[in-house]
Write a structure and sequence with these properties.
By secondary structure, the protein is of the alpha+beta class. The chain has 20 helices and 13 strands. 49% of the residues lie in helices and 10% in strands. The strands form four sheets. Strands 3-4-5-2-1-8-9 form a seven-stranded mixed beta sheet. Adenosine-5'-triphosphate (ATP) binds next to helix 7.
């Protein structure tokens, strides 16, 4: 089995070799190369101590931020290569960080500290593959398996639980049963991991194609990092639109947006408020009145804890609050949607609504899909017409109203919004003179002066 190493990697390995040290490409890059994927970055491990590594590359720029852990970052042709001394990790006191690392001179010891067999392989251009834990066989079989005893490896570092799920999701792999059992049993260890690290892994997990099924099969770790989701587990819906319980529906909906972390998060959280809003009517049918607003609250808490960036957070919360709002697609309802959300989010909302529908009862699906297709057709039609959705598109501006003698202030804003409402609802055409003529009437009518989200 030979792996095509980039020239720079070969020259680093050769340089260290010429100085009497061992050096190998290691970890994720070997795994990805064996899978026929192009590795994002190439890591190298070596028997040389960090100072010895630096002495081998006197001409090169070297960053030493990772020195404590034995890592130097060597810059070659503008690209960074992490070169890490063989090491074992000391005891872990907080289920996340080793108390200290110990440099060792044996590659096998270094590979043994790595998390999964598929990540514990090293490759040398002449000596070939070093694979003491059967990583290559697991790669071919599509299996994520801990190096060593799974429970102990997760005790050392709880983040590995999510890393394992992320690799399984990304490559469509199965999780080896003992590793899987430990993922479930040790899930609480994730409480020792920071929100930022969890969020990075969660997004990576949702970016993979296996996320929906893995959420169904391994719900414990997700419940541990988002306890607000636990009430969804096994929560019945008692509703003819639904064929799964709330968590089952959620997982299937996530599966529908596989590969897109933003929409994955949206679907994961979109019904989180359902258990709090559950009621049954006189016929025993289940309802979840007001659940989108509850879901928004829960999602908002979770995303804040994870330090999600504001833009993604706003998009996710908007989509959740709208996921169940438009039931009938008409020019008017789609216009309203566009006016509130803007084109980009309106398009995302359609993907959310499709994913939601696809994860509901097959009996009512064809009708829902037809409605959504009609909605999308209208969306395109309106966009093609270059229709007016925001104050920016309105044929009259604040300046026009000022010229008519409106005092600057809330009244002027309210008048503009009343005009926009009329245009969005197609009560008036978006024509300057018509709008100006209509102004006195709108005021008399006392049209609702909504506080409009101005869209983009
Ligand atoms: P990715 O494709 O996400 O970069 P990767 O396997 O390269 O995956 P990195 O975080 O870049 O992941 O880590 C590089 C290597 O370091 C891994 O392949 C693994 O051998 C080892 N490693 C990383 N994190 C851990 C951990 N928490 N516990 C044990 N080994 C780890
Ligand atoms: Mg990597």
């Amino acid at each position: 089995m030979s792996i095509p190493l980039p020239e720079n990697v070969i020259s680093i390995i050769d340089r260290l070799g010429a100085a009497g040290y061992e050096a190998y490409a290691v970890g994720g890059c070997v795994r990805d190369a064996l899978l026929g994927r192009t590795p994002e970055d190439w890591d190298i491990c070596t028997s040389a101590l960090p100072q010895e590594v630096m002495a081998c590359f006197p001409q090169c720029k070297i960053h030493t931020v990772g020195l404590k852990h034995g890592t130097v970052l060597l810059m070659l042709d503008g690209q960074g290569y992490e070169i890490t001394t063989y090491r074992t990790d000391g005891p872990y006191h907080d289920h996340r960080h080793p108390d200290g690392v110990q440099f060792v001179r044996s590659l096998e010891e270094d590979l043994a500290r790595r998390d999964f067999t598929i990540n514990a392989m090293a490759y040398h251009p002449v000596r070939g593959l070093v694979d003491p834990f059967g990583g290559q066989a697991d790669l071919s079989a599509g299996v994520v398996r801990c190096v060593g005893e799974p429970a102990r490896r997760f005790q050392e570092d709880g983040l590995r639980i999510l890393r394992g799920l992320r690799f399984a999701s990304r490559y469509g792999f199965q999780i080896e049963p003992e590793t899987g059992a430990a993922i479930r049993q040790q899930a609480e260890l994730l409480q020792f991991v920071s929100g930022e690290r969890i969020f990075t892994e969660l997004k990576g997990f949702l970016a993979g194609k296996g996320a929906g099924q893995l959420l169904l099969d391994y719900r414990e770790p997700f419940g541990a990092v988002m306890p607000e989701l636990v009430p969804m587990f096994d929560h019945p819906q008692h509703n003819p639109h639904h064929c799964y319980d709330v968590w089952g529906h959620t997982c299937h909906a996530v599966g529908q947006v596989a590969g897109d972390p933003l929409l994955g998060l949206t679907m994961l959280l979109h019904d989180a408020g359902k258990p709090r809003c559950f009621s049954r009517d006189e016929n025993g049918v289940g309802h979840f009145h007001g659940h989108p607003a509850e879901s928004v609250k829960i999602a908002s808490d979770i995303l804040a804890r994870f330090h999600c960036d504001n833009r993604s957070r706003d998009t996710i919360l908007t989509l959740i609050s709208w996921h169940d709002r438009v039931r009938v697609f008409t020019r008017r309802s789609v216009r309203r949607m566009l006016a509130s959300l803007g084109e980009e989010n309106a398009r995302l909302l359609f993907r959310v609504m499709y994913a939601d529908a696809m994860a509901q009862s097959p009996a009512t699906l064809p009708q829902k899909l037809e409605g959504l297709a009609e909605g999308e057709r209208i969306l395109e039609e309106l966009l093609a017409e270059d229709a007016c959705f925001t104050l920016k598109d309105l044929a009259v501006s604040g300046k026009d109203l000022l010229a008519l003698g409106y005092p600057a202030g809330p009244e002027l804003g309210a008048a503009l919004n009343a005009l926009l409402d009329a245009v969005v609802e197609e009560r008036l055409p978006n024509q300057r003179q018509v709008l100006l003529d209509a102004l006195p009437m709108l005021e008399q009518d006392g049209q609702p002066h909504r506080n409009r989200n101005k869209g983009q």
